[in-house]
Each structure stands twice: as C-alpha cells, then as structure tokens.
Amino acid sequence: MPFIRNAWYVAAWDSEVTAEAILSRHILDEKLIFFRQPDGTVTALSGVCPHRYASLSMGRLEDGAVHCGYHGLGFDRTGACVHNPFGAPPKGMRLRSYPVVERFSAIWIWMGEPDAADPALLPDFSFNDPADYCVGQGYLLVQANWELEVENILDLSHIQFLHPTTLGSSEVANGAYEWHQDGEQIWSNRDVYGEMMRPELAGPMGVPSDRPVDRWIHTRWDAPANLAIFAGAVPAGQDRGGAPGTPTGHLFTPATQGSTHYFYSIAFPRSMGPQAEILARTQVDFLKMPFETEDLPMLEEQQRNLAGRSLRDVKLGWLPGDAAGARARNILYARIDAEAATAPSS
Amino acid sequence: MPFIRNAWYVAAWDSEVTAEAILSRHILDEKLIFFRQPDGTVTALSGVCPHRYASLSMGRLEDGAVHCGYHGLGFDRTGACVHNPFGAPPKGMRLRSYPVVERFSAIWIWMGEPDAADPALLPDFSFNDPADYCVGQGYLLVQANWELEVENILDLSHIQFLHPTTLGSSEVANGAYEWHQDGEQIWSNRDVYGEMMRPELAGPMGVPSDRPVDRWIHTRWDAPANLAIFAGAVPAGQDRGGAPGTPTGHLFTPATQGSTHYFYSIAFPRSMGPQAEILARTQVDFLKMPFETEDLPMLEEQQRNLAGRSLRDVKLGWLPGDAAGARARNILYARIDAEAATAPSS
Amino acid sequence: MPFIRNAWYVAAWDSEVTAEAILSRHILDEKLIFFRQPDGTVTALSGVCPHRYASLSMGRLEDGAVHCGYHGLGFDRTGACVHNPFGAPPKGMRLRSYPVVERFSAIWIWMGEPDAADPALLPDFSFNDPADYCVGQGYLLVQANWELEVENILDLSHIQFLHPTTLGSSEVANGAYEWHQDGEQIWSNRDVYGEMMRPELAGPMGVPSDRPVDRWIHTRWDAPANLAIFAGAVPAGQDRGGAPGTPTGHLFTPATQGSTHYFYSIAFPRSMGPQAEILARTQVDFLKMPFETEDLPMLEEQQRNLAGRSLRDVKLGWLPGDAAGARARNILYARIDAEAATAPSS
Fold first, then answer.
1. With contacts defined as CB-CB under 8 Å, which chain B residues touch A157?
2. I want to staple A317 with a disulfide (CB 3.0 to 4.6 A). Which of A38, A248, B51, B184 is the partner?
3. Superfamily of domain B130-339
4. Chain B residues with beta carbon closer than 8 angstroms to that of C72
C-alpha cells in the first residue's frame, strides 16, 4: 500500500535533534538526516550523498552544513552543495530538503509537495506545547505497518485483554462505546463504569484504588496516524465536572512498509507545579511496559501473519469497536487513491 | 514443489499437547494451534484470528475454547466463534478446524479434504503404542525440505560416512542391499556382516563389542514421509531367529518448503520390565547426537546448495542405494500431480 | 550486473590452502573448495557433490582426492569420480575443476573458459613474490559489491576524510592528482606536499613526524579488481630519488553480488634483513584498523543505499578524482558486454 505523502508526520522528538550530531531515520522508506542550524532551526535532508551513495549520517556538521565522511562534499540547509575540497561546488549534486516545523515538542516533516506544506495543517497537539506542559517523551520502533497502529489505538477495547494487569480491567467490555466524525477528525470514545483500578493506575489518575471508579478514555485521530487519548477517572457515580483528562500522544510515522516509528507522550500542565515534571517522567516510563511488552509483540505478530499484505488486501472480521477504525481507513484509502491519481509517473 | 495435503502427518508427540497451554506449530506452511479439551481429546485449529490477524497462540484457553489475546473472541473445538465480549458471537468469523487422531504416541493431522480423513489410512506405528511400549520421543526442527529427509532415511548407506563413530562402521558399504515395494510401502533393507561395533551401540543391541556381529537395518516408508527402521544384531554367523529388531520412528512433517519437523522415537516393549523405560530414555538421547550434529548440518547444507529448488528440479547422481528413494519419489510426485489436477483453483 | 569470468582472481592467500584441510569459499557466486595435492600443487573444484548436493567441505581428503562426507564418493584433482564405496566409480558424476596458478603469495583462479586461462595474463604483483619479499597478508569479507572496492582504491582522495587519523591528513585535497592509462592498466596518482604525518605513519615510511613531508601515493589497476598502491615519502622539498615506494596489494574477488573478498598485503624486500619480516607483520596489522573500521562500514552503507542496484544502474556525481575509476568502469562494462555477447545460452 502506498504511503500518504502530503501530510505532517512526526520525524523526531525535539530533544532528539541537536546541532552537534546527525540523526539518521528512515521515513516513508527514505533515508533522511536531521540536525539543527546554529540558530536552532531544524534541517531535514535526504541522507545519501549523490556523489557515491555514502550515508551522510557518517559525516560531520560544520556551520549548519553536513559534510560527507567519504570525500568531504558539504551541503547546506537547502541541500545545495556548498563545499568541495577539490574545486568549485558542483551545481548538479544536491540533496533533497524537506519542510519541517518544530511544534508540540516534536519535529514534524512533510514528505510530499513542498508547496503544500502548510503549518496550519498540523494537527492540534497543543497539550504537548512545552511552554505550558511537562511532556514525557517515549519512542519505540515497531516492526509492523502503521495501519495496524492506527487500528490499535482507535479500538481500545483491547486493553481488557492485552493489558489486563496494567491499563485494562474486566469492566472495559461492559462500558459504553461511541464514535463520531468531526470534520476530518474521528473520535472513538469509551466510558467504563464501576471499575476497580490497580493502585499504579489509580494513583496518577487521582482516584482511589479501593473503590469503584468511572473512567473515560476518549481517542482522537488525525490522518494519517496522529492520535491523542484523553483519559480520566472519578469515583463511581460522581460527576466528571468537565475535566478533559490526561492527554497522551500516539504519533505514528511509517519507517518502511513493515516498520513504524511510535512516538508516545504523556503531558501534565506546568500549572501543577514541580509535580508535573515528576509525573511526566514516571508516567511515560509506566506506559513503556505495556506498549513494549504487550502491544508491540501483538502488532509484530499481526504483521507476520499478514505476510506482506495490508489490511486493505485482506478480509477482516467486524466487532462494534471497529467502526471508528473502519471510517479512518476509508478516509486514508481515499487519500492514497487521490495521491496516486495525481502523482507524476516516476 | 506443492505439499501433499491428503495424508496423515504427525503434528506433535502426544506429550506436547495439553489442556493448559497452546502449542503453536507451522504445518504445510500454515500456522496452527493445538490444545486438549477437558475430556483429553485434541483440537487443531488455524492459528490466526480472523478478526484482526492476531496470533491465537498469544491467547488463553477456557473450557476447551481458545480466547484471542487481543479482543477476547472465543472459538470452540469446531472453530466456531462462541464468545464475544461485545455482543453476540459473529457467525462469519470462524477458525478452520483440522481432523486429528491421537495414536502411536503421536497427534496425527489431516491437512486435506476433511471428508477423506480416514483413520484407517494411518501408517502402522503400533510399535509406538504406549500401551505396549515405552517410547522415547525426540524432536528436531530441521531447516531442510522434507524430501531430503525421506532420501536420508531410505538410503542408510550414509551411516558409514556421516556417522562413523556412532551408528556406522567401515563394513556398511560391504553389506547387502535389497529393496522392494509392498503395496504402497517401500522397504529398503541393509544387512551388514562381520562388523565390529562400538560398546555404546553394541550394548543396547545386546551383542558383544569385542567380536564381529551381523546387523540388519530394515527401513519402511509410508507416504509422504513416515519411516520406521527395524534394526538388530547377532554374533557373526548366528541365526537371527526371526527377531524384528528394535524399532525407531522417523516421522517427518513439512513446516515450510525449507523446514521440516523431525519426530524421532525408539521403543522398547513394556514386557521387558523396568529396563524398557530406562532404555527408551537413554537410547533416544543417544540418537540425538548423530541426528542433531551429523544429519542436520548435512541436510541444511544440501538445502542451501539446492537454493530453492526441489530434488525434482535438479539432475541427481545415481548410486545403487538410491533405488528405494527414487521409487518413493515417483510415488510422491504422482500424488502431488494428482492433487494438483483435482484441486479447486484458489 | 554479471561477473567477468575470463580473468584471474585471487581465490586465497597461499598460506590458506593446505593438504590437510578443505578450504570452502564462494567465488562469483559459486561454492568452491580448495586443497593441496601431496606434491603441493593446488586443486580447485566445485564444492557441491553431484550425487545429492552435499557440501564437499564437509568431506575429507585422501591422497589428493576429496571424499564426500555423505556417501563416500571420491573425486580426484581433475574432478573425476575415482572412488565409489558401492561399486565402480560412475563416469557421469564429476566435479568441475578450475585452472589455478600459485604466484605472488596467492592462489589465482580462472572462472571462465579453461582454454583461455593463460598465466601470462596474470597481473604483475611481483612485489609479493615470497622469494624476494616478506609479505604481510590480510583478509576481510566485505558485504559490498566489488565495483565499490575498485572505486574506493582508485580514488584515494577519501583518505583525508575517511581516514583522518591514520592514513590521511588535511593536505590530501591540496595535492596533485594525475591519471593515465597504460595499455590495459590504469594509474591514479596522488602527490601531496608539505604534510605533517603522525608518527605511526611516518615511522614505517622512514620520514620524520615533526617536519613536513612530501608523499606520493600511486595506484595501479588491473582488471577486474586487482590493485596495487606504491606509496612513499621524503622530507618536504627533497628529491624522491626514483624510489618506487612501499607496495601494498588490494586484490578483490567477488564472493556474491553483494559481498567481496578483500585480500590486502604489504611487502618489504628481504634485502632489508630481519626487519622486513617484522615490518610486514606489524604494518599489515596497522592497515587492518582503517580497512576494517573505516572503509568496510562505509562500503557496506553504500551497498545498502544502492539497494540491489549496481553503479552502472544509477546516476553518479562527478569529482575530479573520479576520472580513473570512470575509465576503469568503462573498460569493465565493455568486457562484461563482450562476455555476454559470446556466452553460450544456459
């Protein structure tokens, strides 16, 4: 299945990209490099030298230009060759540069038509704005197609079965499920009543673990694969009081057809005081366990069982919780088909 | 080369399948799961959930049904969905179930037309009947096509060269070789005279190691790849007295085109008393060494040298000992062609 | 890209091939075996038994014949089957034998038409003649196509960037570059003036490390991939005096399309006395570091970035130092095309 190119993807957490080291990362099956200019802005370039196919990640940075580690050619932030140890910089050799925006604690990249790279199209992850929130940042590389990740987060009914001792409980399936589309966004909302929560989960959510609670877990999807979950809990029967819940980010970027970058986060408002920092750090660590030891193996098994096919290629079963994912996939497939229809033949 | 589907294959030793854990195994390139019902009978089902391609081996067992570890769907012994945490069990989603028979200490599976799965077609491995014999059970997964395994056991002339210090001796090539077909079975018989045997081999065979002995090694093949060897020895020149010899089983089941399950066994009659149990255990351990460190590397090298081709695709040399194997392959190819001619186009 | 078959390739260093053990090595994607006869001459044979595709490297040597470890067939130095434990040696089964020449401390093999295997076509590596030189022998298996290796050695401008702390210096790019073709040979010559050399490099080259030196590094190529570098240095401004420089060999032999045997050497004349032996040993060890930890990773990254394409398939950039390599590639492609035009269809 082709990738959607005209979209914003998270390429890295802001903390991963520096002016001192070159970050190398495959995105939509292309090898890219990332680094910061002396002024702090981020540069994203194709990661292979056009001279002899050397990997530029093996080079070095100098004054905001990357110098190839093989024959010393230097390329600036626009991808133009600006340094040649053996003569004038050749005009014919240049790297492709990619539009990037640094926002919401992340570096976002646009892999499609550069002219279409409008920052206004960025999904709203303002709860990850480092000015207002302490953001715990996590990362996993998962050997599974990105579409499986979208399905996984849009249908959280699985937390009862895949995460029984961490994020789930036996009451999840008895909860209420609702989904709706709001413009291009899809919401997949699960409300669970009368759950007994483990102390590890109840504590940070501010509810007791010795009495039943009511929990809401509301998921928002922006195409292609940028998801947010807003989750909160109150003692059973108590009014929720309009609190939005703690936001977590689940930002997926295809590395290859069979592997996906998973940027996950949990954020607490700085207005909480010093505890926000501590909670961000400890809670993103808490999430790592189920994400890495429960979700990841399941998704990688699905990927192996699909044996090179995408979800679009196969017959799928249907459960009520699949409605939001199915709608998202319809939107995605329409965009893929639209891009294929207008793509220049290469 | 296509697999033969309408045949009994060993899927597992009886001891491998329990009511407590799910056994996952690839057979004829399909991912299957095996477990026991509360009544002890064995269930074999396709191992991938039709809902979202999760591996059911990551699920759990409850009352003879397997429950998917992703969204909790439960499937009974027939493969029907009988449990859905989110509503009525959907009729459209079901697993494929496979006919199995538990006999001769093994679980046999039929991968072809279920209606044709006649237990009367099981090959006779009554020497592995746990009621009468103590059966030592061994298992190896070999990265080689099953056909190479059939050739290996049907031509035991190799024991002189591949197993010189364990199963073979320098006299094997001087022995007599005879083969014949008996109905659908092929016999490949080797009689060796005047061998000096090592104590490790002579002892369990009940002959001295300090004097020459006469040994018979008679191999029986049932299609596709279920072989028995009956071997015995007497002091040189002495009458064999009609003893059939110690039976070993060599039961091969294709995992994929390039890998094969090797179930091997050695059996001693319970009528021997407590020694039967000890001999079964120690002798199956003794066999592990040559099978794992001598046969396995040779077969895996052959597989690499064939580079994706089957024996049917290549020119082979011819030695007298190849006659039985050649006849077996002709029978196998005829069955493969017959199945291909009648298979529904998929 | 097809291999050039009608050419001499180094198959092994002389010290690697003995009468006691079978050396197994892939060359031009064929599995070959090498061993010595009792008279010391080297035999090269196809490495797969024609009987059942066993690897002959798992066999044993007896009187200059290789005996298969599976069923005992023996093949002599011509590849003819000369031993069959079960009857007369079958005429139809034989191994392919390959012309080999032992010269310049190496075993050279001819993979093409045997009649064309003229030792007069061997490239001149007389500086590796063990009668006159102490030859330090090194070996690496590199996961990169052989063509990348040719380019690497024909354009040594990279030593400034890839080997800054071992073989290079910041003055390399400022040096003079000249290339020319001499018959079928190509020379790529680099002269660097006023370099400060590190003691590790200066010492063995016989120049001071505390004053500038002039260095010459002249590379000679013989098709397909046999290269020599003659390098020397004198105090800056001093006359070179006609000294040829220390010779190093860079002999590349395709193992597969994506992997190459790299035989490298450094030689010192025996006329130097006992120091020649010590220098050969220590200097070949010194070279191992940059070759293994700097060139090899770069070449393997190039190979991955080419993703199955050869340099002939892709657009390349152009720097002045590429002229010699480009000429060499033109000669190579002409030979590949010529062999393809005359090859029997197989």
1. 71-72, 85-86
2. B51
3. Naphthalene 1,2-dioxygenase Alpha Subunit; Chain A, domain 1 (3.90.380.10)
4. 160-161, 173
* Residues whose CB is less than 8 angstroms from the CB of residue A319 and which lie 6 or more positions away in sequence, other chains included: A155, A157, B51, B71, B73, B84, B86, B87, B90
Predicted complex: ipTM over 0.90:
yes
Contact A69 C173 (CB under 8 A): no
- Give the torsion through C-alpha atoms of C69, C71, C74, C80, to 10 deg: -120
Intervals of CATH 3.90.380.10 along chain C: 129-339
Cβ A233 vs Cβ A252: under 8 Å: no
2.102.10.10, 2.40.30.110, 3.10.450.710, 1.10.260.40: CATH of C8-121? 2.102.10.10
Q: Of the candidates B104, B142, B145, B121, which has an alpha carbon nearest to the alpha carbon of residue B12?
A: B104
Across the interface, whether the CB atoms of A52 and C321 are under 8 A apart is answered no
CB within 8 Å: C54 and B301: yes
Least Cα separation, residue C16 to chain A (angstroms): 33
Task: Please give the CATH number for the structural domain made up of C129-339.
Answer: 3.90.380.10
Amino acid, res. A282: T
Residues recorded for chain C: 346
Per-residue pLDDT of chain A (346 residues; tens, 9 = 90+): 999 999 999 999 999 999 999 999 999 999 999 999 999 999 999 999 999 999 999 999 999 999 999 999 999 999 999 999 999 999 999 999 999 999 999 999 999 999 999 999 999 999 999 999 999 999 999 999 999 999 999 999 999 999 999 999 999 999 999 999 999 999 999 999 999 999 989 988 899 999 999 999 999 999 999 999 999 999 999 998 888 899 999 999 999 999 999 999 999 999 999 999 999 999 999 999 999 999 999 999 999 999 999 999 999 999 989 999 999 999 999 999 999 998 765 5
B308 touches chain C (CB under 8 A): no
Nearest to B31 among A155, A305, A320 (CB): A305
Domain with CATH 2.102.10.10 in chain C: 8-121
Answer whether the bond into residue B85 is a cis peptide, omega within 30°: no
Contact assignment for A69 to C315 by CB distance below 8 Å: no
